[in-house]
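dumping this here before i forget
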Amino acid sequence: LPIAVFDVLGLYLLLGAGLWAFGNGEIKIKGADAQFLFGVVGVLIGALSAYVAALWAVEGQAWDLAWWQTTVVLGNNGRHGMVLIPAAVWLALCLRGGASLPTERLHRAFVLLLPLALLAAAHGQTLWTDDAAEAALSHLEEGDDVLLIHEPTLAMHWLYSMHPVLSEQGPEGLVGHWRAPDADWQGEVLTGVTFPDRGDLSQVTVIVVAPGLDVTLDGWSEAETGEAPWMNGGGTWRILVPEANP
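structure:
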C-alpha cells in the first residue's frame, strides 16, 4: 500500500501532474471548505491507492510474480489518480492561503514534464502487435482463429492490442487465443484436444510468436517476420502458418 500511495500521489499527481510546483513550504488548512476538500482528496487518494495495491496483489498472484516485479510491470496504474487533478489543484490553491500563482515554478514543471510527455506519447504509438496483426490478416479466412504465443506477463494485454486491427479488418467470428510457450499448446493445435477453461485451438490457422521466443511447430512454417520497436523491448516477432497455407 505505501508503494501504491507513492505511485498515485508521488509519481502521478505531484510529479506527473506538476502539483509540486504549487508548494510554498507552508500548509494552511483554514476554513471549513479547505478542511472538507483536504479530507475528500485524502480519502480519494487513499481509496485509489488501495485499489492499485489490490490490483497489484491479484495480478501478481495470477502471474506468479514477486511483488516488486508486479509494481514495475503495472506501475502505470497510478494514472488512475489523475482523475483527482481538478480537486487537487483546487486544494493546492486553498493551501497556499491566497498567495499568487507560482508562475516561475509552473514554467519549470512544464519544461521538465514536456520531454517525458513526448516520450510517453511516442511509446504509446509503438506497438509491435499492430504490425503483427496486419501481417496476420493476409493469412486469415472466415472461420479461422489466431493464437498468440507470449509469456504470461502482459500476454492478455498484447492480445487485446491486436483486437482493433483484427476485429475491424479480419473475418467475421475471428477468435483470438493466447498461450505461454511452455503450456503444451502444440497438441491443442495439431490434434484439436481441448482442456477445461482454455478454449478450442482447433481452428487456429495463424500463430503470432512474440519477440524473443524460439517457438516452432511441426508442419508449420514462418510466413512473416518483423522487428518490434526498441521501446517495446525490441526483438523479432514471427507469423507461423500451416505449410499447406504459406
